[in-house]
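Task: sequence design from structure.
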């Protein structure tokens, strides 16, 4: 197993998280650096992705590295029966780092056990999404000025939302208070036609219309799941809604 891999946000200590956030600030001020000159990064996306894949590939290019990989596993040898182990072993001969998204929980951890190069988990099923969580933490810190003693409300798919799972684990170091709001049943309405929720929210409905404020984690990426039509979301406090209104969500990855 490569010990430099990032599979779960729990792989990072409080000190490491804070150090990465400080490094992110410096990169935001000066994004174009040549730290990956001569390095090859493989992006292996066994599950569809736009923002996460392009974010990683943009970062590699800005840092002077080169990108190889695929965004559609059906066009690779996996469609002919090649195992995940064989794919990872083969790609690790070409690349210095592998960024991988997979539809199965635990796939990233398994990849670290067979790879000769570090693995970054870009989302494994409903398990975790540590790179998204780092962006969430950075966005919270920028907008709130601290990560300590915050009340955070998470709205949406709490059971299968990997961004939710990772954020909760990361915030354990900072004494948070969490509020969880979710539907008890699946919704039949589309995100922009949920009359019950929008009526309940009254003057906030225009705020909630924007996809970036969708039913994902409060600071997480927008998702395609629908806002619940039975009004359960109304259990969120109005202070939370006002909180949403004055903060700026990150560009999700």
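Answer:
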């Amino acid at each position: 197993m490569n010990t430099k891999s990032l599979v779960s946000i729990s792989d990072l200590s409080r000190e490491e998280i804070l150090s990465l956030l400080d490094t992110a600030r410096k990169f935001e001020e000066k994004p174009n650096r040549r730290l990956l000159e001569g390095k090859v990064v493989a992006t292996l996306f066994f599950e569809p992705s736009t923002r996460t894949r392009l974010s990683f590939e943009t970062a590699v290019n800005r840092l002077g590295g080169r990108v190889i990989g695929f965004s559609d596993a059906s066009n690779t040898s996996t469609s002919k029966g090649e195992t995940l182990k064989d794919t990872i072993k083969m790609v690790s001969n070409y690349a210095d780092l592998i960024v991988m998204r997979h539809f199965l929980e635990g796939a990233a951890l398994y990849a670290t056990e067979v790879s000769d190069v570090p693995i970054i988990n870009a989302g494994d099923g409903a398990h975790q999404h540590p790179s998204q969580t780092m962006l969430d933490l950075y966005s919270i810190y920028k907008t709130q000025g601290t990560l300590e003693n915050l009340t955070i409300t998470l709205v949406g798919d709490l059971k299968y939302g990997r961004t939710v799972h990772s954020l909760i684990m990361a915030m354990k170091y900072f004494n948070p208070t969490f509020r969880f709001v979710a539907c008890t049943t699946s919704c039949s309405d589309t995100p922009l036609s949920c009359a019950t929720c929008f009526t309940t929210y009254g003057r906030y409905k225009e705020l909630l219309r924007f996809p970036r404020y969708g039913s994902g984690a409060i600071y997480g990426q927008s998702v395609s799941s629908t806002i619940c039509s039975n009004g359960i979301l109304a259990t969120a406090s109005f202070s939370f809604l006002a909180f949403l209104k004055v903060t700026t969500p990150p560009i999700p990855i």
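Residues 186-253 have pLDDT under 50 and may be disordered.
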